[in-house]
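Regression test case RT-17, inverse folding.

Input:
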């Protein structure tokens, strides 16, 4: 904890300091066990025990109590924000693994919830790079009517999707997303079978007719008469990769959430068992030079005549790019141009 933060409380009276801690205790709602852990951290900052704090307060050790209360206040703020952010990310963490914590601030900025009398809808977290936008979408029935409709849909094995999705670009134009689906669940099939279910969807740049998701200012979701607006927050940097030799494959890019490239349109029936559904053989190049097989990746491809734009995610894993030097496509190595 910063000493400067604590020192700002020095001029408070005892009554003002007590009121401050009471107000923080009222505003920030966390469980008692967590609250006690936060207080213990505060007491450690001033090097005293819970018992000594009680004695100081009882004997009205004014200056020391102000310091203790200041510690409690500041640690409550710092600690509770961490607890709150962690709780907010639970929806996305039900699906995504890997380096989720490294991007918690950016992911938290994309979490939105809205409701009416019958339904609550939410974006429980979104991931964005220059080629794709992945999001966790949830619908929950609130009223008797809403719960009944949600249950009926879930009973058919179907998934709720937004009725409409739009992207507003930085040039103020608006694009309607025509093609996408909510189709991916976590390994545990995260759901309350009676009432709600959430799933993961992906939108790629080609569906918007744009070159990069960096052109998007925000997304708008409409469902059951409810509107949600989610800012287009980049999860991490999208890195260009350079081929080690001449090849038809171009525009190879890598980000923490996936990769993309433009390559030859290969007929699926020409593919062998060790290539992707796109017909291209992919391997990841680890930092020690060894090759790693793809696992649960999902691929989208956009027809460009004789070529296709392939956009892949990492199968709901956020990767640490420091662990990789690049990607191998059809036997050609593509390396990061920096780092």
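Golden output:
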């Amino acid at each position: 904890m910063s000493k400067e933060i604590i020192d700002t409380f020095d001029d408070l009276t005892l009554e003002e300091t007590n009121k401050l801690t009471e107000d923080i205790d009222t505003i920030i709602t966390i469980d008692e066990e967590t609250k006690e852990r936060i207080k213990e951290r505060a007491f450690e900052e001033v090097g005293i025990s819970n018992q000594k704090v009680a004695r100081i307060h009882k004997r009205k050790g004014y200056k020391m109590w102000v310091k203790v209360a200041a510690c409690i206040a500041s640690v409550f703020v710092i600690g509770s924000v961490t607890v709150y952010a962690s709780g907010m990310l639970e929806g996305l963490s039900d699906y995504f693994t890997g380096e989720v914590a490294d991007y918690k601030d950016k992911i938290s900025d994309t979490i939105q919830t809205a409701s009416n009398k019958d339904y609550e809808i939410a974006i429980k977290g979104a991931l964005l790079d220059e080629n794709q936008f992945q999001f966790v979408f949830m619908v929950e029935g609130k009223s008797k009517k809403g719960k009944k409709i949600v249950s009926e849909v879930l009973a058919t094995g179907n998934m709720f999707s937004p009725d409409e999705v739009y992207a507003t670009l930085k040039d103020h134009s608006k694009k309607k997303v025509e093609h996408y689906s909510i189709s991916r669940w976590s390994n545990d099939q995260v759901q309350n079978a009676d009432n709600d279910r959430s799933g993961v969807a992906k939108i790629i740049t080609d569906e918007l007719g744009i070159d990069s998701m960096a052109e998007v200012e925000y997304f708008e979701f409409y469902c059951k008469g409810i509107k949600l607006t989610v800012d287009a927050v980049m999860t991490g940097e999208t890195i260009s990769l350079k081929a080690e030799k001449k090849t038809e494959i171009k525009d190879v890019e890598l980000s923490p959430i996936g990769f993309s490239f433009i390559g030859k349109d290969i007929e699926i029936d020409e593919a062998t068992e060790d290539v992707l559904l796109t017909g291209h053989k992919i391997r990841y190049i680890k930092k020690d030079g060894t090759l790693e097989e793809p696992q649960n990746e999902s691929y989208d491809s956009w027809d460009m005549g004789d070529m296709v734009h392939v956009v892949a995610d990492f199968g709901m894993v956020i990767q640490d790019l420091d662990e990789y030097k690049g990607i191998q496509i059809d036997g050609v190595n593509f390396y990061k141009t920096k780092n």
